[in-house]
Amino acid sequence: MGRPADLTAGAPNLGRGLALARKALGPAASLVEIAGDASTRRFYRATADGTTAVLMVHGEALAPDAPLFSNHRIMAAIGAPVPRILDRDDGAGLVLVEDLGDLTLQRHLVLAGGQAAPPFYRQACDLIALLQSRAPAAIRPEDFAARNALDRERLLFEFDHFHRNFIVGRRGLTPTPSEGVLLRRFYDDLAEACDRLPRVYCHRDFQSRNLMVVGDRLGLVDFQDARMGPYTYDAASLLRDSSLDLEPGLVTEMADRLARATGAPLAAGPEEFARDLDLMALQRNIKDLGTFGYMATARARPDYLAYVPRTIASIRRTVAGSPRWHHVHPWLERLVLDWTA
After folding, report:
1. pTM for the complete prediction?
2. DSSP strand E in 209-257: where?
3. Do 178 and 195 reside in the same domain of the chain?
C-alpha cells in the first residue's frame, strides 16, 4: 500500500520524476509513494495500464559514475538478478527501475513459514558465490567497488557509530574509563581480525529485507554500497540476519554450502569458514545494533527496536562460543547485552 504522490511537496524533482515515468510507461502514469525501509531515499511506484515501475528519488544530483550505476553495471554484467534501469535523470537524482514487487524474503517467510525457506536460501547462497567468483572480471579501476572496501578503517567507523547511537544514544550509558579502554581494544581487535580475511566483492547488506521474492526466484535490491570486503561478510548478513529467525538446521546447511562455494576457492575448509563466519557475524550484528539505535532515536523509527533482542541473542551466542571473547563478556553484558526496550 502507498499514498498518492504530492507533487507540490516534491517539486521540482518529483514533477520531473512523473515525466520520467510517463516517458517510460505512457501518459497515464501516476505515482504512489511506497516504503523505503531505512534508506534516506524516497520511493514511488509508477503505474499505467497495469504496468509498473519504481522511481527512486535521491534528493541530490547523481554523478554518471555514482555507486548505484557502477554497481548495477557490474551486477547486470555477471547475471545477478538486479532490476533493470528503465530511465534516469542524473541531474535531478531520479532513477526509474524495474518493479520487483513488495514481497521481501523476510515477509514471505513470515507469511509462508520456515518450510518455504530452503529453496530461496540455496538461491541466495549461490548468488553470493556468483558475486564473489564473477564480479572481479567486471570491476573497472574507476568503479566505486574498486576504490572502497570494508577495511579496518571502515569497520572502526561502524563501531564508533554503534558506540554513539546504541550504548550512549539509545541505552543512555556511559562506560567507565576502564570499560572505555577495554571497548576500544575490543573494537580494534575485532576490526583487525576481520580486515585480515580474504577480500571479495560484497553486496554489503545481503539480508532478507533486500532479497525480493518474484515467483520462485529471488531479486536483489539495495546494492548501491557494494564494495570489496571480507569473504564471509555477505554470509554473515544472510545467516545471522537481525530481522528473521532461521532454523538452526537451515543455517548449518547453508553455511556448508557457502563453505564449499566460497571458502574452498580461498583454501578455507569448513572449520576455517565457520570461524570466519562467526568473526564477521559478531562485527555485523554489533553494526546492526548501531543502526537500530540510530533509527529509533535520530530518525524516530522505534519499530527497528523489535530487531534488537534477536541481534543481542546472536552476539551472546557468538561471544559465548569462542574463548577469544570470554574476557569481554562481563562488561559487554552490562553495556550491550542486558537489553530492556
Report:
1. 0.93
2. 211-214, 217-220, 227-230
3. yes
